[in-house]
C-alpha cells in the first residue's frame, strides 16, 4: 500500500493538493513515502506520533480549510477521494473528531468507529464496488503517516493478497 494521504511534497516545505499549494508546518511532514512489503521507504512514514492535539492535514480537510473531493459528509465524518489512489476506486473515511490512532481510541469512541465502517460500506455501494478492501494503518510499525485516524477503502479491481 502506498502513502496514507497522497499529499505530496518535494522536501522544499511546499506541498500540493490538486491545484492548491500549501506551506508545510511542523505538524505535517513534507515528504510522504509508501509502505510496501512491510517496511517504510521514507523516514517520515511510520514515524512516532506527534504530540496529542497536533493538527494534521486531515483535520484541516474535515474543517474545509483545504479542498478535497467529498463523497460523503455528515456530522461525524467525511469520505474523500484519495488523490493518488492505488486502485481505480480509493477513498478515505475521516472522523471529524481528531483521533490520532485506532489503538488510542476509547470506549466512548465505539459508536463513532462503527459509524466510520458503516459509511465506508455505504460509499463503496454508491461507488458500485462489487468488493473492496478496508485498511487502517496504526502507529509506526503499521506505517501510519498521518496521525488522524482514517480508513482507506480500495476497490474497482481484483486485489492481491497478502497486501504488504
Would you write up a description of this structure?
It contains 2 helices and 10 strands; from the N terminus they run E-E-E-E-E-H-E-E-E-H-E-E. With 164 residues, it is α+β, with helices and mostly antiparallel strands. It has one domain: HIT family, subunit A. Residues 1-44 have low confidence and may be disordered.
List keywords for this structure.
164 residues; 3-stranded antiparallel β-sheet; globular; 2 helices; HIT family, subunit A; disordered N terminus; 5-stranded antiparallel β-sheet
In percent terms, what proportion of residues is strand?
A: 15-25%
Can you tell me the CATH class? Alpha Beta
Which structural class should the secondary elements be placed in? Answer: alpha+beta
Series of secondary-structure elements, N-terminal to C-terminal: EEEEEHEEEHEE
Structurally, the number of domains stands at: 1
Q: What's the total count of β strands? A: 10
Summarize this structure briefly.
The chain is of the alpha+beta class and 164 residues long.
Topology:
Blueprint: E1 8-9, E2 14-17, E3 20-23, E4 35-36, E5 39-40, H1 57-62, E6 70-73, E7 77-81, E8 89-95, H2 110-126, E9 132-135, E10 151-155
Amino acid at each position: 500500500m502506498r502513502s496514507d494521504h497522497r499529499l505530496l511534497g518535494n522536501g522544499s516545505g511546499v506541498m500540493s493538493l490538486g491545484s492548491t499549494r500549501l506551506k508545510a508546518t511542523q505538524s505535517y511532514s513534507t515528504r510522504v513515502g509508501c509502505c510496501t512489503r512491510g517496511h517504510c521507504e521514507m523516514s517520515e512514514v511510520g514515524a512516532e506520533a506527534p504530540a496529542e492535539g497536533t493538527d494534521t492535514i486531515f483535520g484541516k480537510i474535515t474543517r474545509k480549510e483545504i479542498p478535497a473531493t467529498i463523497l460523503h459528509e455528515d456530522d461525524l465524518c467525511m469520505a474523500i477521494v484519495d488523490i493518488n489512489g492505488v486502485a481505480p476506486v480509493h477513498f478515505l473515511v475521516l472522523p471529524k473528531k481528531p483521533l490520532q490512532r485506532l489503538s488510542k481510541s476509547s470506549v466512548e469512541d465505539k459508536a463513532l468507529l462503527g459509524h466510520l465502517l458503516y459509511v465506508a460500506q455505504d460509499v463503496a455501494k454508491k461507488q458500485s464496488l462489487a468488493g473492496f478492501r478496508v485498511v487502517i494503518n496504526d502507529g509506526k510499525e503499521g506505517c501510519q503517516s498521518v496521525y488522524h485516524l482514517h480508513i482507506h477503502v480500495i476497490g474497482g479491481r481484483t486485489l492481491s493478497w497478502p497486501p504488504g
